[in-house]
């Protein structure tokens, strides 16, 4: 579905230059507090986990320390699981789902796994409720060497410093109505192309990796999450956000080619969750619970698979 309405910045058919990117940034404002809503919760976890600062972003709006929370007694002989949230800072349940997992469920898995959680990869995006960073760069299309996104670089360097190969990487996201009303129109304007929207799926779904689909892993998560919230049905074309459904509630992307977060880590099991917070059937707590269930059911699947061998 294309739209003739042009975004308020830039000229139709012309890519943005530095002037347009600056105009976009100047249109953004702080809408909530990363320090009050996120950092305080992370710091409160320090009795049960190792809480470390792995970087800091300094933008005009302030300083943004980046935190990773790790299970104590990290051991390189145990399988390591990475959970990331807030790669797109505006996707709220991804951030708070990662924190809730740590608060309520993660300790039960620390005997078997090293748990590594980066709850909010893009804190400026969290505060301004944005998909991009201040330079109109999407961190979740920027996971490659010498990335222009400091958010992506910092996370990749932190994971590399762990010195392990990841068993699993679960990246917590949302698909929202603003994807069509704001973020896709802004992307089209930035790139100087025609805006094409997709149908926003009503419900939870997963994005797997087309090169490493982990079909049984994905289906196990979907089965568990549908006990918490509803799963998005395919649209009339058998698709979700323009991609063919590979099984109920699952689509696959080329995560490495697209430089997505789950593509950089070479994990044996990887998936990206997508919660729909604008559905009339859910509330904030339901969205957070769905994220937690996605993580715990994924870990349960891996534990069972290892025992079954």
Would you kindly provide a written description of the structure presented here, covering whatever features stand out?
With 309 residues, the chain is an alpha/beta fold. It has one domain: Zn peptidases (Aminopeptidase, 3-Layer(aba) Sandwich). It contains 8 helices and 10 strands. A 10-stranded mixed β-sheet has the order 1-2-4-3-5-10-6-9-8-7, sandwiched between helices. A hairpin with a 2-residue loop joins strand 7 and strand 8. Helix 3 crosses helix 8 and helix 7 packs across helix 8. The termini are far apart.
Number of strands: 10
CATH topology: Aminopeptidase
CATH architecture classification: 3-Layer(aba) Sandwich
Which stretches are low in confidence, meaning pLDDT under 50 for 5 or more residues running? none
Overall body shape:
globular
Question: In terms of structural class, how would the helical and strand content be classed?
Answer: alpha/beta
- Mean pLDDT across all residues, rounded? 96
What about the largest sheet? Answer: 10 strands, mixed
The helix/strand order is: HHEEEHEHHEHEHEEEEH
| CATH top level class name | Alpha Beta
Helical fraction equals 25-40%
Number of domains: 1
Radius of gyration: 19 Å
Give the CATH superfamily: Zn peptidases
The span between the termini is: 47 Å
Number of helices: 8
Strand order of the largest sheet: 1-2-4-3-5-10-6-9-8-7
The proportion of strand residues reads 15-25%
């Amino acid at each position: 579905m294309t739209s003739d309405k042009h975004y308020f910045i830039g000229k139709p058919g012309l890519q943005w230059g530095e002037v347009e990117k600056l105009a976009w940034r100047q249109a953004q404002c702080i809408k909530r507090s990363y320090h009050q809503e996120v950092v305080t919760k992370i710091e409160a976890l320090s009795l049960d986990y190792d809480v470390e600062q792995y970087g800091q972003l300094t933008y005009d709006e302030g300083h943004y320390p980046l935190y990773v929370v790790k299970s104590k007694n990290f051991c390189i002989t145990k399988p390591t699981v990475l959970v990331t949230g807030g790669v797109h800072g505006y996707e709220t349940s991804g951030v708070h789902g990662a924190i809730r997992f740590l608060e309520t469920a993660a300790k039960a898995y620390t005997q078997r796994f090293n748990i590594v959680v980066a709850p909010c990869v893009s804190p400026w995006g969290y505060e301004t409720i944005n998909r991009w960073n201040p330079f109109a760069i999407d961190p979740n299309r920027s996971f490659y060497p010498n990335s222009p996104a400091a958010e992506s670089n910092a996370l990749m360097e932190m994971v590399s410093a762990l010195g392990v190969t990841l068993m699993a990487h679960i990246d917590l996201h949302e698909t929202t109505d603003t994807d069509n009303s704001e973020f896709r129109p802004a992307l089209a304007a930035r790139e100087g192309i025609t805006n094409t929207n997709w149908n926003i799926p009503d419900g939870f779904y997963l994005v797997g990796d087309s090169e490493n689909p982990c079909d049984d892993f994905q289906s196990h998560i979907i089965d568990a999450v549908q006990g918490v919230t509803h799963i998005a049905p395919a649209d009339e074309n058998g698709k979700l956000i323009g991609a063919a459904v590979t099984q109920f509630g699952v689509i696959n992307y080329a995560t490495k080619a697209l430089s997505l977060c789950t593509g950089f880590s070479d994990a044996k099991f990887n998936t990206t969750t997508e919660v729909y917070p604008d559905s009339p059937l859910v509330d904030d707590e339901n969205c957070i619970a769905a994220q937690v269930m996605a993580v715990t059911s994924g870990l349960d699947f891996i534990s069972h698979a290892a025992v079954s061998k």
